[in-house]
Amino acid sequence: MTDEGYFFVSCLRKNAIVRPIERLQLPENSLVQSDDMVVVGTTQNRIENTFRLLNVLDSKGNQLNLITNRFDLSADEIAELYKSLWAIDCFSNG
Asked: How far is 29 from 68, CA to CA, in rounded Å?
């Protein structure tokens, strides 16, 4: 998807294997717990693209690991985007 110019924000599967590359800087007042540049997968079957892994807390205090290929947005913008997408999904399925 990334190679074809598509962008995404999604929850990372709990069993995903992640190799951190670099910790990205967060502003002091960020709602995001961490923002890392990562590669996903094993060394034998690794996706060649680099992604961003954000650790955020939802409104109930549960930890979410968001994966995205958006490096042009701030961590807080990505978290808000996911929150908005989740609200739309809940609304359309509710």
From this structure: 21
User: For residue range 55-71, what is the model confidence (pLDDT) as tens digits?
Assistant: 998 878 889 999 999 99
Instruction: Dump pLDDT digits (tens) for 30-57.
Output: 989 999 999 988 767 766 789 999 999 8
Is 54 in contact with 8 (CB distance < 8 Å)? no
**Tokens, residue 89:** 């999904």
Question: What residues form DSSP beta bridges with 7?
Answer: none
31: its two tokens: 């709602």
Complete edge-to-edge strand list for the sheet that includes strand 9-11: 9-11, 63-68, 51-57, 32-40, 18-23
For the chain, the average pLDDT equals 85
H helices of 1-94, in order, are 75-93
The C-alpha atoms of residue 64 and residue 41 are separated, in whole angstroms, by 19
Residue 33: which region, alpha, beta or left (left: phi > 0; alpha: psi -120 to 50)? Answer: alpha
